[in-house]
Task: inverse folding
């Protein structure tokens, strides 16, 4: 698994993308189609190393949106894991956008890293593995995960369904 | 022996204790452990592992948050201790910490107790 702009640069350029695909290797072109734009009025944050501030913002927004406490904690965990990948692997600061409506709350994390494995985070890593739990946890706790990654960067969108509003 | 070290958000304090005549090392971690302070956390824990304790107990009751890099540090400590015949035990994880331990099944590998006394009694 390469979620690493620097590692990707160290890899030799593929001579033939089709040949790479036939060989069953992850595509260096990245994964996922482009995502629709965030909702207007989304809250926006930038982070370099201050993940605690990001976690606090996510928790506050999630509770404001009406996400129950245990799910808010799950969302904090997921966002923190994705943002940790920015610190580990991207060359840029990361950006976080949060928005919600009556149905769901969405957190979008963007950086200049590259994910070349379409199945990143889909397989359970062994406890002996020295990494790879981050994205797996993200997939376990979120209701929906959208991922788009190419040579310009990576966008990951985490969705959590909100409990239905009671009427009356 | 008693000391405190602050790493950004994270405080780690270490005390040497005894339970029924058996010595153990108690490490209290408080704050938030993530990728930005994992190296320090790992280094401090490895210093304690190097003392070859019979039992290393990590009191997590003050730890609000732990991410997968901090979890890997714990798994590493668990392996090192195991190799030298020692035991690692975790105490009183808060909701977010308990969640990552459960999700990754690390709580089946490393015993988790409600209190330091229970952990020390084994």
Result:
């Amino acid at each position: 698994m390469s979620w690493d702009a620097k590692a990707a640069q160290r890899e030799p350029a593929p001579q033939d993308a089709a040949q790479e695909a036939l060989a069953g290797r992850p595509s260096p072109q990245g994964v996922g189609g482009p995502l629709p734009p965030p909702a207007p009025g989304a809250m926006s944050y930038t982070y370099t190393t201050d993940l605690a501030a990001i976690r606090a913002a996510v928790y506050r927004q999630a509770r404001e949106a009406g996400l129950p406490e245990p799910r808010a904690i799950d969302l904090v965990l997921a966002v923190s894991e994705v943002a940790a990948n920015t610190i580990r692997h991207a060359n840029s600061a990361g950006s976080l956008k949060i928005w919600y409506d009556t149905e769901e709350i969405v957190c979008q994390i963007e950086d200049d890293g590259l994910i070349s494995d379409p199945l990143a985070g889909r397989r359970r890593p062994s406890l002996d593995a020295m990494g790879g739990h981050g994205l797996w946890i993200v997939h376990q706790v979120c209701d929906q995960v959208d991922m788009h990654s190419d040579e310009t960067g990576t966008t990951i969108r985490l969705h959590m369904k909100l409990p239905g509003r009671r009427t009356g | 022996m008693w000391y405190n070290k602050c790493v950004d958000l994270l405080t780690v304090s270490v005390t040497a204790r005894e339970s029924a005549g058996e010595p153990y090392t108690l490490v209290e971690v408080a704050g938030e452990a993530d990728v930005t302070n994992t190296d320090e956390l790992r280094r401090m824990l490895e210093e304690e592992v190097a003392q070859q304790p019979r039992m290393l107990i990590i009191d997590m009751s003050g730890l609000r948050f732990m991410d997968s890099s901090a979890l890997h540090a714990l798994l590493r400590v668990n392996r090192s201790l195991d190799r030298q015949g020692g035991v690692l035990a975790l105490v009183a994880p808060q909701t977010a910490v308990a969640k990552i331990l459960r999700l990754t099944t690390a709580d089946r590998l490393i015993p988790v107790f409600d209190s330091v006394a229970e952990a020390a009694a084994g």
Notes: Confidence is low (pLDDT under 50) at residues 1-7 of chain B. The first helix of chain B runs from residue 38 to 49.
